[in-house]
Structures are given as structure tokens and as C-alpha cells.
Design a protein that fits this description.
Layout (H helix, E strand, L loop, with lengths): L4 E2 L7 E6 L4 E8 L3 E9 L5 H5 L7 E5 L3 E2 L18 E3 L2 E2 L2 E2 L8 H7 L3 E4 L3 H11 L2 E7 L7 H10 L9 H4 L5 E3 L7 E6 L5 H9 L2 E6 L5 H6 L4 E4 L10 H12 L4 E4 L1 H10 L2 E18 L4 E14 L5 E3 L6 E8 L5 E6 L4 E4 L14 H19 L1
Parallel strand pairs: 4-5, 5-7, 6-8, 7-10, 13-14, 13-15, 15-16, 16-22
Antiparallel strand pairs: 1-9, 2-3, 2-11, 3-10, 4-11, 12-14, 17-18, 17-20, 19-20, 20-21, 21-22
Helix pairs in contact: 8-9
GO molecular function: ATP binding; carbamoyl-phosphate synthase (glutamine-hydrolyzing) activity; glutaminase activity
Catalytic activity: hydrogencarbonate + L-glutamine + 2 ATP + H2O = carbamoyl phosphate + L-glutamate + 2 ADP + phosphate + 2 H(+); L-glutamine + H2O = L-glutamate + NH4(+)
Pfam family, one: CPSase_sm_chain
Length: 390
């Protein structure tokens, strides 16, 4: 029999969500008390809130869950995707008062308090979502406890003086500071250099299962740092921020491609791959976030339901192949988002490199795109075989 875990029972202090256009929503404090500022975005997943909260890609963002009932399965020690909660703030409609799951060892609100995450509950999250869908993601602030009583003009001033997401480089906030290694659990292929821009643990586990000794390197690593581990391939992870503000990582990636090393990038790594090829990036109106995004694999015609977390995208022609502006041969868009025709994957036709804009590890599901780790393994194995035959 599972013993329910009671919620912490924090007093129902007031809280207010303030958007940069002056929109205000009054609710109840949830998690830590105080003030938090960030870009307000919505995530459409019906489950997987623990994986969402611990995804480093959400750094700098106040995340709204569109699913109305959050927290019923609590928090456990097995599902975190990183070492802490990264969201700047949290917005939910109806937090569960009781945790009832055999794996839970704490409640969500207690964990939010522990990690200092200011949240708000009891507001019309559907109304906020519809507003963002029309007006676009925007800066916002949650003011709770004593800060909820601040003058409305003062609250709005703080929000409008906060930095916009466009132009921000946030990788240094979430990346490891020293290299870490996850040994291969499958038949060993060789060392894999992972540039940690905000990598998730499930990604590392999937790569290790394909036979890579996974070397997680700081986001500030140079090509010399990468070459020092004698990698058989390079992987760029997901992460927060604006890809146009990551010139150093793009320059390193071009050295990787120039060296002929196989490459796989996901999410932020897709955007940086696009830039390395010579393509532009742009900010989406409200982004893609959630575990129910339909994507077309153009090679197979198969529609995958995928996990997304991105507010920026690559500019590229959807149909046909085109020449890389930076001289890496022919390139094609391999995957397309079916909701809005956004580029969701790139494949280089003349070098061993590809990327997708979503999360193939998809912790919390779905797992339609997990095959991409096998595809990466096959690309690396074929590349090594080609080298050995020369």
C-alpha cells in the first residue's frame, strides 16, 4: 500500500503574475516566496513535470504547465534530468494537495522551496496560454508573499527592465565546469565528446548505451580540448538561450566539421549546426514546448510524436537540397514540424553530420525518435570502417 505524502502546507500567501504588456493575474504563492523574472512560456505535456523542471534548457524561463493538475505523483530521486531545477519560475493551475505514488519521496512544492523556485498557482492558465499564443512569449515576473503587495507600477518596472531572451547566452549557467565521463554500457565504439550546453542525463545514458564513452565537456571547451580526448565523434546538446549569441561554440563546431569528425546535435545543437553550415536562426512567436509535438521524417514519411523545448529555429528551405553557404556541401531539411512547418532537422549529404530540433531521449516520453541514437551510432561506425579501409 502506498502512503500518501502530504503537501508542505505552506500558508496560502498571495501571488501575482505580471507580464511585460501590463497583464496581471492574481493567485496563490506556490513554492518559494519572493520575486522571480524571466521569459514566460508554456509547456503542453500532460505528464513529466519533474523532467521538465530539471531540463537545463528552461534556464531563464518561467514555465506555465497547460495541464491543469500538477504535482500528484510528487518528486523522486530517479527521474531528475540534471542536478537541480532550472526553471526561473513555475505557473500551475491546480497543484495537488496530496502526493500518491510509490516512487515519490517528496512533494513538488517542497522541492520548489528547496531549490528556491518562486511559483504561482490558482490562476487561469488557459487564459495566459491563449494570450501568449496571440501576443508571443514575453518577459514576466512572479511576485509572491510580501512582494505580492508591491506597487503594481513597481512590479511592471522590474519586469520591463529584465533582459529579453533574444541575445542571451545562458550556456555557462548550466554547463559543467570540469569534464565528466559516463562509461559505455553497450559494446564500446570509442570516446564521444559532448559539448554540454545544458545536456540531460537521459541523453548521456542513451549515448552510453550505444557504446560511447561519453566525455561531457564544459561549454567553453576549444577544439584542442575536444581533440585531446581523441573522439570518434562530437555531440552538441540541448540548452537555453539565443543561438545567435553563441559564436564561440559555432566556431568550434566548424573546426569539428573541418576535421571530418561525425557530428550529431539536438535542439540547441541543431541551431548551432545550422549556423555552422552558414544558415540563420530566428525567434519563434511562442516556441514549441511539450511532449506531444508532431514531426514529419521526410526520408520515411513517418510522423513522430516528439518532445520539444525550443524558442528559436533555423532558417532553411523545406523542400529539396541546397548548398551550405560555408562550403560543407549539400544539405537538406530532414524533419519538419507539422503544426507550423518549422525546420526540425538538418542532414548534411557530403559530410557525416546531422541534427534534430527536438529531444530523441524524450524522458517522460514519447519514444518515437529514440532511433536517432542508433542512426548516430551507425554513422560513426561506418565512418570508422571507411577510415580503416584506407
Amino acid at each position: 500500500m502506498t502512503t500518501p505524502i502530504a503537501s508542505s502546507g505552506h500558508a496560502a500567501d498571495a501571488a501575482v503574475l505580471v507580464l511585460e504588456d501590463g497583464t496581471r493575474h492574481v493567485g496563490r504563492a506556490y513554492g518559494a516566496r519572493g520575486t522571480t523574472l524571466g521569459e514566460v512560456v508554456f509547456a503542453t505535456g500532460m505528464s513529466g513535470y519533474q523532467e521538465t523542471l530539471t531540463d537545463p534548457s528552461y534556464a531563464g524561463q518561467i514555465v506555465l504547465q497547460t495541464a491543469p493538475h500538477i504535482g500528484n505523483t510528487g518528486m523522486n530521486d530517479e527521474d531528475p534530468e540534471s542536478r537541480r531545477i532550472w526553471v526561473a519560475g513555475y505557473i500551475v493551475r491546480d497543484p495537488s494537495r496530496v502526493v500518491s505514488n510509490w516512487r515519490a519521496n517528496s512533494s513538488l512544492d517542497d522541492t520548489l522551496v528547496r531549490d528556491g523556485i518562486v511559483g504561482i498557482s490558482g490562476i487561469d492558465t488557459r487564459a495566459v496560454t491563449r494570450h501568449i499564443r496571440s501576443a508571443g512569449s514575453m518577459r514576466g515576473g512572479i511576485f509572491s508573499g510580501a512582494d505580492a503587495a508591491l506597487d503594481a507600477d513597481e512590479q511592471l518596472r522590474r519586469v520591463t527592465e529584465a533582459p529579453e531572451m533574444a541575445g542571451q547566452n545562458l550556456s555557462a549557467q548550466v554547463s559543467v565546469s570540469v569534464a565528466e565521463v559516463t562509461p559505455a554500457t553497450g559494446e564500446r565504439i570509442g570516446n564521444l565528446a559532448v559539448l554540454d550546453l545544458g545536456v540531460k542525463q537521459s541523453t548521456l545514458d542513451n549515448l552510453a548505451a550505444r557504446g560511447f564513452d561519453v566525455h561531457v565537456l564544459p561549454q567553453s571547451s576549444t577544439f584542442a580540448d575536444i581533440a585531446a580526448i581523441e573522439p570518434v565523434a562530437v555531440f552538441y546538446s540541448n540548452g537555453p538561450g539565443d543561438p545567435s549569441a553563441s559564436d564561440a561554440q559555432v566556431a568550434v563546431l566548424r573546426e569539428v566539421l573541418d576535421a571530418g569528425l561525425p557530428y550529431f546535435g539536438i535542439c540547441f545543437g541543431n541551431q548551432l549546426f545550422g549556423r555552422a553550415l552558414g544558415l540563420g536562426t530566428y525567434k519563434l512567436t511562442f516556441g514549441h514546448r511539450g511532449i506531444n509535438q508532431p514531426v514529419l521524417d521526410k526520408a520515411t514519411g513517418r510522423v513522430e510524436i516528439t518532445a520539444h523545448n525550443h524558442g528559436f529555429a533555423v532558417e532553411a528551405p523545406i523542400e529539396g537540397s541546397f548548398d551550405s553557404p560555408h562550403g560543407y556541401g549539400k544539405v537538406e531539411v530532414s524533419h519538419v514540424g507539422l503544426n507550423d512547418q518549422v525546420v526540425e532537422g538538418l542532414r548534411a549529404l557530403d559530410i557525416p553530420a546531422f541534427s534534430v530540433q527536438y529531444h530523441p531521449e524524450a524522458a517522460a516520453g514519447p519514444h518515437d525518435a529514440n532511433y536517432l541514437f542508433d542512426r548516430f551510432r551507425d554513422v560513426v561506425v561506418a565512418h570508422l570502417a571507411k577510415k580503416d579501409s584506407k
